[in-house]
Amino acid sequence: MHLILLLKQKENNFSLSIFPKNTNLKTPSVDSVRKKHLVSFERIAGLRFRRLDLLNLAFCHRSYTNETTDDIDNNEKLEFLGDSVLGVIVADYLFCTLPDRPEGDLAKIKSFVVSEKSLSVISKTINIDRYVLIGKGEERSGGRTKKALLADCLEAVIGAYYLDSGYKDTIKFVLKYLIPEIDKVLADKHVKDFKTLLQEYVQKTYKSYPKYLLIEKTGPDHNRTYWMEVSVAGTIYGPGNGKNKKDAEQNAASLAYQALVIKAES
User: Fold this and answer.
1) Residue-range definition of the domain harbouring residue 123
2) What is each CA distance from 180 to 4, 122, 183, 186, 192, in whole angstroms?
3) How far apart are CA 129 and CA 140, in angstroms?
């Protein structure tokens, strides 16, 4: 049953999972000061948790748990769960609301809206950067501004909310922030930063980085065209071209991303 129908159901505790939620997570305690912080976050984000310790765990970055003496988990398992729940919600929404679009278009839209860049922007909108718990070293290195850290924390919050309140409420939370991003893509008003998208994919899939190579410059000095190739895990993509190196890299990254991600998902 698709989410459009799920939103119309009257069950209060509807959940996608068929498994009992015996998480065995070691959650951090919530003192009075931290409770005020978490309640403030709930108000900003439009959430209401039954268990604030689950929300608190979603904010516990690995660097924080490595430095604390408390026996608690970090937020990575919640991030894993939240990433999957987020993907299902967005995919189902696109499937239901864009029935005439081919698979490739749906995959492309989904790739943009659940990207690290998009999620990190949403994270800042709801002040996740203020409430995330990080270690001293991570704090000194600017951890609160790192896109990957913020995007991962948002996915952890989604995972925690799913465990706490079920699929129905999680749908409402996710779509509240993701529908505007989907609309931007449909109106072609989103920023198509293919270099960032490609780097995120390559880091996650191959544990490496794309490598760009200038292969040619054509035209007179006042009207140069640059030609760039990009290497991903030993495979060359491109060339992409542009009037400067940055644009040429973006176009090469676009070709690689189309081949590696969008075509593969379609």
Assistant:
1) 3-186
2) 17, 11, 5, 10, 16
3) 14
Q: How many CB atoms lie within 10 A of CB 167?
A: 18
Q: Comparing C-alpha atoms, which of 56, 258, 70 is closest to residue 164?
A: 56
Taking the CA atoms of 143, 149, 151 and 156 in sequence, report the sign of the dihedral they define.
negative
Burial (CB < 10 A; 0-12, 13-18, 19+), residue 42, is middle
Instruction: Tell me the catalytic residues.
Output: 83, 155
Of 136, 161, 186, the one marking the end of a domain is 186
pTM assigned to the model: 0.70
CB atoms within 10 A of CB 212: 18
204: tokens are 């996650």
Q: Are residues 96 and 76 part of one domain?
A: yes
Instruction: Print burial letters for 148-157: b (CB count within 10 Å at least 16), e (below 16).
Output: ebbbbbbbbb
In sequence order, which residues have a C-beta less than 8 Å from that of residue 31 and are 6 or more positions away?
Answer: none
Q: At what angle do helices 245-257 and 194-206 cross, to 10 degrees?
A: 50
**3-class SS of residue 142:** coil
Same domain as 166, residue 72: yes
Hey, how many other C-beta atoms are within 10 angstroms of the C-beta on 50?
9
What is the mean pLDDT for each group of 10 consecutive residues in the chain (266 residues)? 45 44 81 96 96 96 92 95 96 94 86 88 96 94 90 97 94 96 80 80 91 94 90 95 89 92 63
